[in-house]
Design a protein that fits this description.
This protein has 440 residues and is an alpha/beta fold. It has 14 helices and 15 strands.
């Protein structure tokens, strides 16, 4: 095990001899005796061999519950990840790379980020994308920062955003003289157009809406953002990247900035992280975009080359006036997303979206047939929907856990948000419905 420790016993003896000390205690003699005595009394087990440690860690990992079938989303989604994603993303050259400041030594990683940015632009229909930020909530907060103006310090957030996104934005701006107001949802589950119209004034800098929203409903984004534009406010859309394959592109509904959580693009659930915040914007907002941007140029010999560009926006160039403090970002996650999008291609991504949509609608119809069960909303939804049932969400999930099934996300008001992706089959969904029928 010496290869895994900072020093061996022989090395420690050599260091002590060089220092003229008899022992480590002698070396630390300036430390008060009572503190050293307390350290001596720490009851730690003996060190383990690599084999013993492997068994120990595998035993601990085995205590984690892994469900065979998952019907929960609410911000983190269980999509199939092609083997090629792991094969490429775990290559040492990618895993160990740092921010590629020295372009001549980093053409490989710079090109992967450039290709990722290109695909995010294709997905959103917008002009420019960055190299990603930490997660979707961070991306939303950074988008709000892009919207701020000297005389416009008021941002409107739809209640249909994920609660963590709302809390992140509030936390980011609570001491920066920025007012944050929530736009209520209508009874249909959509962001209220009427409420937005009443809230808009000359102080509003931006309007942030999710598509689909946290309850699965597809928002009237074009109508909402038309109102925002009329009032002089910027429009920000937080999108599900899988849904973006079949819904109108962000640019088509009048969006200035598109953001989102990229976890569905080739990243496992992994206890909730790491995630990937993607961002794209119109050309006129490019210099306000945070984080790294990789651009394409030519070198002295006329060959295509990739470099970090527009770096005057960043903290390592203009520390006090930088657009953000996004440092070494989730570039490995951006690589995974880029590989996933490349492997799937436009048609494959669309098929994933269509399968998720059709399966969610099938399950919704089956659940609505159960006695006392109903769908809460009548509006269009993508792959998540809310049910109301005569039994609590906690009881439903307790029963499903016995069948190795992770059920929907229970809401505080008694409803439950269900999610379907391409990973569940019709037989799986029929099994779920039959179990719930027996529960009553």
């Amino acid at each position: 095990m010496c290869a895994y420790l900072p020093s061996t016993e022989a090395e420690r003896r050599a260091m002590l001899e060089a220092l003229g000390k008899e022992s480590a205690l002698d070396f630390f003699s300036s430390v008060p005796a009572e503190q050293l005595a307390a350290a001596e009394r720490v009851d730690l087990p003996e060190g383990m061999s690599e084999l013993e440690l492997s068994r120990k860690l595998n035993g601990l990992a085995a205590k984690n519950r892994q469900f065979a079938k998952i019907y929960r989303g609410y911000g983190a989604y269980n999509h199939y990840i092609p083997a090629m994603v792991d094969e490429i993303a775990t290559r040492q050259a990618f895993v160990t790379t740092y921010t590629p400041y020295q372009a001549e030594l980093s053409q490989g990683v710079l090109q992967t980020i450039f290709e990722y940015q290109t695909m995010i632009c294709q997905l959103t229909g917008l002009d420019v994308s960055n190299a990603s930020v930490y997660d979707g909530a961070t991306a939303a907060a950074e988008a709000v920062n892009m919207c701020l103006e000297r005389r416009r310090r008021h941002v409107l957030l739809s209640e249909g955003l994920h609660p963590q996104t709302i809390e992140t934005v509030k936390s980011r701006f609570q001491y920066l003289n920025v007012e944050v107001t929530l736009i209520p949802l209508a009874e249909s589950g959509e962001t209220s157009v009427e409420a937005l119209a009443e809230l808009l004034d000359e102080t509003v800098c931006g309007v942030l809406v999710a598509q689909p929203n946290v309850l699965g409903i597809i928002e009237p984004a074009a109508e909402l953002f038309a109102l925002a534009k009329k009032a002089g406010a910027k429009s920000v859309l937080s999108i599900n990247p899988i849904a973006a394959a079949i819904l109108p592109a962000a640019a088509e509904v009048g969006v200035d900035i598109a953001v989102g959580e990229g976890q569905p693009l080739g990243m496992p659930l992994s206890f909730g992280g790491p995630g990937l915040g993607f961002m794209a914007a119109r050309q006129d907002m490019m210099r306000r975009l945070p984080g790294r941007i990789v651009g394409q140029t030519t070198d002295a010999e006329g060959r295509r080359a990739f470099v970090l560009t527009l770096q005057a926006r960043e903290q390592h160039i203009r520390r006090e006036r930088a657009m953000s403090n996004i440092c070494s970002n989730q570039a490995l996650c951006a690589l995974r997303a880029g590989v996933y999008l490349t492997v799937m291609g436009p048609q494959g991504l669309r098929e994933v979206a269509e399968l998720s949509l059709s399966k969610a609608h099938y399950l919704a119809a089956r659940l609505a047939e159960l006695p006392g069960w109903s769908l809460r909303f009548d509006g269009e939804f993508f792959h998540e929907f809310v049910t109301d049932a005569p039994i609590s969400g906690e009881k439903i999930n307790a029963v499903l856990r016995e069948h190795d099934i992770l059920g929907g996300y229970p809401l505080a008001d008694g409803g439950m948000v269900w999610c379907c992706t391409e990973t569940v089959t019709r037989e799986d969904m029929d099994e779920l419905v039959n179990i719930l029928r027996e529960v009553g």
